[in-house]
Amino acid sequence: MMQEKNNRAELKEAILKAIDKNSKLTAKDLSLMLGATEEEVAAAVAEMEADSVICGYPTLINWDKTGNERVTALIEVKVTPQRGQGFDRIAERIYKFDEVESVYLMSGGFDLTVIIDGRSMREVANFVSSKLAPMEAVLSTATHFVLKKYKEHGIPLVGEIEDERMMITP
Amino acid sequence: MRDPLNHIVTGIQPSGIRKFFDIVSEMKDAISLGVGEPDFETPWHIREEGIYSLEKGRTFYTSNAGLKELKEEICHYLKRRFNLRYDAAKETIVTIGGSEAIDIALRAMLDPGDEVLIPQPSYVSYLPCVTLAGGKPVIIELKEEDDFKLTKQEVLDAVTDRTKVLIMPFPNNPTGSIMTREELKEIVEVVQEKDIFVISDEIYSELTYGSTHVSIAEFPGMKERTVVINGFSKSYAMTGWRLGYAVGPENIISQMIKIHQFAIMCAPTTSQYAAVEALRNGDADVAMMHDAYDGRRRFLVNALREMGLSCFEPYGAFYVFPCIRSTGMTSDEFATRLLQEEKVAVVPGTAFGDCGEGFLRISYAYSIDNLKIALERIARFVKKHTK
After folding, report:
1. pTM for this one?
2. Which of A19, B47, B256, B277 maximizes the CB count within 10 A of its CB?
3. Confidence at B273, pLDDT banded by 50, 70, 90
């Protein structure tokens, strides 16, 4: 029983490691790679989805290479924590906005990092001045615009990847 | 004019695979599963250390046998990973890749006419290096039914009074075969009984799956008669840095250093500084690459079996060695036609010895996405040609 549980945990970890960088892998691919059956993989994935271990399968897009203009801003936010709820309540009020890409609670000089994805600088500025800054619990904001993205999710967005290896005598 | 050439050199057959590779390199849209080096770039912290050493102006020779701190790190590593104990000052030499170590070990050990047992299929350098060192290569043909492992009986059948050295090419390129402790024990017995020496090429020692690599030098009485060869190319993805090493008994290593000193001077200094960093802080990189290879290995073996090719499970290196006899083609024919018809390059087993006939070497030093496309094409090809 214990063994079975361990195997299952190991399989889950192996699946997560594999799809962390490549969510296109199918249950069939994973079953071949990990030496489990397709059903076992599918069941483990379903369980992790239900447990919110796997929260989604987004695609890493380099928008700079498309005609689509995008602006990303990182906003340092100082807030007043609320009695009984700490930072969670104010964080929730912020992250519920669609423009908000990520929200992190920070240690150090400010409390929340809010990352905004907008179509233009004006849109981001509007969000900060009309939505974020006026919130009662928000004491101050400092907005930094991203100039260039070099790497996201462990994957470089610049430079070309080319196989430079040559066929030489084996 | 007199013939300017040495007849031992002219007598060595050029690699037959060359022609095939020339076609591959000219075919721009071919998918290659033929390369025998990691697809990973050298981990950045290791490269960065190399750059730093250049910035610091460490652009001079090192001592002949290698940087002291590198030799010490090598010895710590071998003890920590494989339970091997060597003296950094007297029993260690840093070389230009494992290849140079193979060459100078043979040259240091062989007298003209000494016989060297070479299990095949195996890496293509052993045979010419033995010949160039004045030795006589004696091939042992490994068998698929033994999972391409070396057996005691095979050694006994090949040994003569002139046998001096046995080459142990495990984990094996091209078969992916490994030798377990129990299997090595049998070999140790016959090696000691017949009083022969061992050159153990353990360049793939970090790439074993399911068990940790066991070195033949670890057995009682074997350190005195074994030269262990290893390096940074495969484990740390550092092929282009050209850095390997050999450890062994002082009497052999000191003679190897003599040859190295006169022929090479020393291994590249930049590479040596980078390698110190690799050994000190590279364990996580090795583990990451190992796990990636392991996933691809299973993927490839299972996919090949699904298409009806028999494929023994390789537990080492980054190659699988499927049998293609069911298609009725020779290895050469299969590889050539696969390249022409489906634009996938693999290496015919015969490149690694005559007994590789009927097999292919497929490398999984490629991303899963690449492997998937290649496998679809191979499956289509096999289906079309299986009788």
Report:
1. 0.90
2. B256
3. very high
Number of domains in chain B: 2
A87 vs A75: CA distance, rounded Å: 16
What are B78's two structure tokens?
């071998």
Long-range contacts of A88-96 (CB under 8 A, 24+ apart): A89/A137, A90/A135, A90/A137, A90/A138, A93/A135, A93/A137, A94/A132, A94/A135
Please report whether residue B174 resides in a domain: yes
Residue B226, min C-alpha distance to chain A (Å)? 25
Q: Using a CB-CB distance cutoff of 8 angstroms, which residues of chain A are in contact with residue B37?
A: 165
Q: A122 with A135: CB under 8 angstroms?
A: no
Report the distance separating Cα B135 and Cα B227, nearest Å. 17
Helices (H), chain A: 2-20, 27-34, 38-50, 88-95, 121-126
What's B114's domain CATH number?
A: 3.40.640.10
The residue range of the domain holding B231 is: 58-281
- Asked if B312 and B368 sit in the same domain, the reply is yes
**Would you state the structure tokens that stand for residue A12, as one six-digit string?**
């889950």
DSSP-assigned letter for residue B211: S
Order of all β-strands in the sheet with B163-168: B92-95, B244-247, B226-231, B197-201, B163-168, B115-120, B136-141
Contact at CB, B18 and A34, closer than 8 angstroms = no
Give pLDDT tens digits for A54-113.
999 999 988 888 888 889 999 999 999 888 888 999 999 999 998 999 999 999 999 999
DSSP letter (8 states) at residue B204: T
* C-beta separation of B63 from B90 below 8 A: no
Q: Where in chain A is the domain with CATH 3.30.70.920?
A: 63-147
The CATH number for A63-147, chosen from 3.30.70.920, 3.20.20.70, 2.40.50.150, 3.40.50.150, is 3.30.70.920
A158: distance to nearest CA of chain B, Å?
16
Give the integer Cα–Cα distance in Å for B160 and B136: 12
